[in-house]
């Protein structure tokens, strides 16, 4: 359990007075509990807070808050600290995203509001709890269906469009997000996560009669998996570049639903991996990590059209000087970075399809002498990969 002796009435009172800009606030009671299950979040500890307070000693009010804490020990702590993940998220939420949200309000919102950020002892972010606004995770057991996927890609298009405007107004914004998930100077454990994950997958594929012939190729490729990510993230000036979410998968977005269970709204969470690079990166990563096989196999063009339409419309509304990409340019960019999608399929997808009762945290995955990810044994994951591996081979992606 996370150490939270610092989390008392006095601390909460200080935060709320500051975020609400009201020194009359008095916090009378706080309830805290863990905010995520194992497997929902790998690079932070999350606490859900309900704070009861009053203003001017009058009516009692409640505030629902998520506290996101930087891990304090183990491999997670090393990865998170060395990669500066909390620094990236603080700068996104307190500065860049704030500007992006102001451009899209009141109709659309990309993220929760940040209430407070603290750099050390402990390093933390306090964010409004989106669950209290009716947002929740989508069922991740088989990937997002078409309704969810369309909503996710519309949200992504707005995110990218707003980031272009923010970067046009202040080019320094681009330099603030130059690391992302794939960066030469991250800790070796970050590299191990992808390379060992692909090696473990190769061993697993050897047991699948329909696909075992690909096992050796995946095994040879496994040492290069992190490099594939680094190469895909190289900034190329003639691409359509944006601030990418950088870890755009279904656990990092929440949805609102109507009474029939149809999604009506979507919002992003977790901005630790944001990077200024080709917009194709988020598109590919989301497609390969989170979209159901039926949609990726038969309806990718619908998603491309929806993304591009929303992107172009939003950029026009926001008076962008930059031109959006054409469909031809976008498809060419996605094709050029196809191996990045394969990397997401091999290493991120099994985590998202892992059943919750078997999920492990990052220390458990990387600490044992063998890479442990129960998601590699998921039937849905196996079904998807058995269909994707021949395609990757056909495209030449499995050859070094």
UniProtKB/TrEMBL annotation:
Stored SMART domains: CHK
Domain of life: Eukaryota
Domain CHK kinase-like per the UniProt entry, residue ranges: 125-317
Protein name: CHK kinase-like domain-containing protein
Species of provenance: Atta cephalotes
């Amino acid at each position: 359990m996370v150490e939270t002796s610092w989390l008392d009435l006095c601390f909460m009172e200080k935060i709320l007075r500051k975020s609400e800009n009201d020194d009359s606030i008095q916090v009378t009671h706080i309830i805290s509990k863990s905010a995520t299950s194992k497997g929902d979040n790998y690079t932070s500890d999350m606490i859900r807070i309900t704070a009861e307070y009053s203003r001017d000693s009058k009516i009692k009010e409640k505030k629902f808050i998520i506290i996101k804490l930087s891990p304090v020990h183990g491999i997670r702590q090393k990865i998170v600290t060395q990669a500066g993940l909390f620094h990236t998220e603080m700068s996104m939420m307190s500065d860049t995203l704030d500007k992006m949200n102001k451009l899209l309000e009141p109709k659309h919102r990309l993220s929760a509001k940040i209430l407070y950020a603290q750099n050390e002892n402990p390093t933390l972010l306090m964010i409004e709890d989106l669950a209290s606004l009716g947002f929740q995770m989508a069922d991740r057991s088989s990937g997002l269906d078409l309704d969810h996927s369309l909503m996710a890609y519309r949200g992504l298009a707005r995110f990218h469009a707003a980031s272009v405007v923010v970067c046009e107004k202040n080019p320094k914004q681009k330099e603030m997000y130059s690391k992302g998930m794939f960066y030469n100077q991250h800790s070796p454990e970050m590299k191990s996560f992808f390379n060992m994950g692909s090696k473990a997958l190769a061993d697993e594929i050897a047991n699948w009669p329909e696909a075992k012939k690909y096992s050796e190729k995946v095994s040879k490729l496994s040492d290069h998996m992190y490099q594939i990510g680094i190469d895909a993230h190289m900034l190329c000036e003639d691409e359509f570049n944006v601030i990418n979410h950088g870890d755009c998968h279904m656990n990092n977005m929440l949805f609102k639903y109507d009474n029939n269970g149809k999604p009506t709204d979507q919002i992003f969470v977790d901005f630790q991996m944001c990077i200024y690079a080709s917009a194709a990166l988020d598109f590919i990563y989301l497609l390969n990590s989170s979209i159901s096989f039926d949609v990726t196999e038969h309806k990718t063009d619908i998603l491309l059209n929806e993304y591009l339409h929303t992107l172009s419309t939003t950029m026009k509304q926001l008076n962008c000087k930059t031109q959006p990409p054409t469909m031809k340019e976008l498809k060419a960019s996605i094709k050029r970075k196809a191996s990045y999608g394969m990397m997401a399929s091999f290493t991120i997808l099994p985590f998202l399809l892992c059943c919750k009762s078997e999920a492990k945290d990052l220390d458990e995955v990387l600490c044992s002498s063998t890479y442990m990810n129960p998601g590699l044994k998921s039937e849905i994951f196996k079904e998807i990969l058995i269909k994707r591996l021949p395609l990757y081979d056909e495209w030449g992606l499995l050859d070094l």
